[in-house]
Amino acid sequence: MTRHYNFCAGPAALPEPVLVRARDELLDYQGRGLSVMEMSHRSAEYVAIAEQAERDLRDLLAIPDDYRVLFTQGGASLQFAAAPYNLLGRGGSANFVHTGIWGKKAMAEARHLFGAAPVAASSEANGHTAVPRQADIALTDDAAYLHYTANETIGGLEFDYTPEAVRPDGTRVPLVCDMSSSILSGPLDVSRFGVIYAGAQKNIGPAGLTVVIVRDDLLDRARADMPTLLGYKTLAEGGSMVNTPATYSWYLAGLVFHWLKHDIGGLAAMEAINRRKAEKLYAAIDASDFYANPIAMANRSRMNVPFVLADDRLDKAFLAEAEEAGLLNLKGHRSVGGMRASLYNAVPEAAVDALVDFMGDFEKRRG
């Protein structure tokens, strides 16, 4: 069997040791005579799996004791509705930093549901090639919280700092972050956030699971008209098992957390690997007149690297030859075109080396 290098933006590559262990346990989980997929989510065996996954995630991110970790469903997109439902119960508005397509979608959902979603800052004027600076972020007087997207998966734009969420009167409000494509890529100070949410299918595990990290003092701020299954407090009190959870995705996420802790050695070690991978690819792009990336140096994503060819008539040939070389899923998002290499945690450094070599060879032959 030959496994190729997968640069998909999501669902994304999973660590091979995780896949091997999942394969070995698929039919018979640790001698229990059944698969994890067949277990009751309330059985002692499955509760142990779920609890271990949460402990490992807490250890990796050093999550403070006054935060709850929720394993829910619906993807990050459902959190576009869940966050305002949970945080606007005392009035006010959800403020947004708009840096690309996913931030825009979050903003649009809040506006659709509640009629207002003030833009505290935007990178639209520069074509989403650099994030707004802290001095450019202006919250409204009634801001209940500030939402931003840490890493725009499609545009390859990543924040190089954590914004401060302060209203004009000096009142600090919760910071809410969509961290779907950057969570677990390096150490993180969770205490600076009110809510962090992330779809699993980038750095956490397979699609079908969403992780939400929420500070305890925010659990009583929900709107009365909120659908029950969106409630952070309800999910926290029910151990994320108010209804049947995505059990197999949760199990696989636990295996990923174990891999990060014990095989990689934690998030500082993971960050060093990710930095090397990104630096290699950006260096190849910058050294060439054939490839280009438009993002400001300080805001280049470590996880998602978009690039274009000097002649877009060669795009199809590039993708076809890349696939023949075992380099998969390099086509850019349909909304922007070009190429995109997603370098999530499970993408090995050897994959980037192979991509850089291929790009150099393609340029020599086609440039």
TrEMBL record:
Top-level division of the source organism's lineage: Bacteria
Modified residues (N6-(pyridoxal phosphate)lysine): 202
Complex formation: Homodimer.
Single GO biological process annotation from the record: pyridoxine biosynthetic process
Function description: Catalyzes the reversible conversion of 3-phosphohydroxypyruvate to phosphoserine and of 3-hydroxy-2-oxo-4-phosphonooxybutanoate to phosphohydroxythreonine.
Domain Aminotransferase class V as annotated: residue spans: 5-355
Subcellular location: Cytoplasm
Gene name tied to this protein: serC
E.C. no: 2.6.1.52
Keyword terms: Amino-acid biosynthesis, Aminotransferase, Cytoplasm, Pyridoxal phosphate, Pyridoxine biosynthesis, Serine biosynthesis, Transferase
Protein name (Swiss-Prot/TrEMBL): Phosphoserine aminotransferase
GO MF entries: O-phospho-L-serine:2-oxoglutarate aminotransferase activity; pyridoxal phosphate binding
